[in-house]
Design goal:
With about 220 residues, this protein is mainly alpha-helical. The chain folds into two domains: about 80 residues, Glutaredoxin; about 120 residues, Glutathione S-transferase Yfyf (Class Pi), Chain A, domain 2. About 50% of the residues lie in helices and about 5% in strands. A four-stranded mixed sheet has the order 2-1-3-4, covered by helices on one side. The radius of gyration is 17 Å and the shape is globular. The protein starts with a strand and ends in a 14-residue tail after the last helix. The mean pLDDT is about 95.
């Protein structure tokens, strides 16, 4: 198994957590430095034409991409412990909670978006930060609304066992910390994220604990 990753990638963070939960250790981890634009080089474009992280090669067959799809693949090929509930409605709820982060909020603040705002739209740093904080906050608010309302919420996002939703909650909160977003309006989200980050598979996967990461980060 070959895993294309970068310490700064929150999408890679999601997959690292899933790998840790499943006790899967990739044979090779390939660093794709997003800050240096390595994802746009021809070699990586052959791996993932979208030029995004993460990507996963597992034996023969097509290269896997998109963090949610990779997590579901890992769950199907390594069923224990499960990342999705058994019942269809529960599975739908967990997927929906995960997608608030992975599909709606996080994609609006990734490097390619920030670079476009800076170089094409000529937005200054203050405007870019306002955009990023707004969309992180929107994602956190949406998660808080669902998690604080639904009786299915337990110790974690869905009951008392970790699911894919918790992976996305924890990574959303980590991203909020990088950009100094005020998280006090989201007590349920923070309770769950804190519980998650106390678990070894989450803590070990934290971006700042990866090779090449700085000691601290504000952006």
């Amino acid at each position: 198994m070959k895993f294309y990753s970068f310490w700064r990638s929150l999408a890679s963070f999601r997959v690292r957590i899933a790998l840790n939960i499943k006790n899967i250790v990739p044979d090779e981890i390939v660093e794709v430095d997003l800050l240096k634009g390595v994802q746009r080089e021809a070699a990586y474009k052959k791996v993932n034409p979208q030029m995004l992280l993460p990507a996963l090669i597992d034996g023969d067959g097509p290269i896997l991409f998109q963090s949610v799809a990779i997590m579901e693949y890992l769950d199907e090929t390594h069923p224990q412990p499960p990342l999705l509930p058994r019942d269809p409605r529960g599975r739908a709820r967990v997927r929906a909670l995960a997608l608030i982060n992975a599909a709606d909020s996080h994609p609006l603040m990734v490097p390619r978006v920030r670079n476009f705002m800076e170089h094409e739209l000529k937005l200054d740093e203050a405007a870019r930060e306002k955009w990023i904080k707004h969309w992180i906050g929107e994602g956190l608010a949406a998660m808080e609304g669902h998690l604080s309302r639904d009786k299915e919420t337990g110790k974690f996002a869905h009951g008392d066992a970790v699911t894919m939703a918790d992976i996305c909650v924890a990574t959303q909160v980590t991203g909020a910390g990088f950009f100094k977003v005020d998280v006090t309006p989201y007590p349920t989200v923070m309770r769950i994220a804190t519980s998650c980050m106390e678990l070894a598979p989450f803590a070990k996967a934290h971006p700042l604990k990866q090779p090449g990461a700085p000691a601290s980060l504000s952006h």
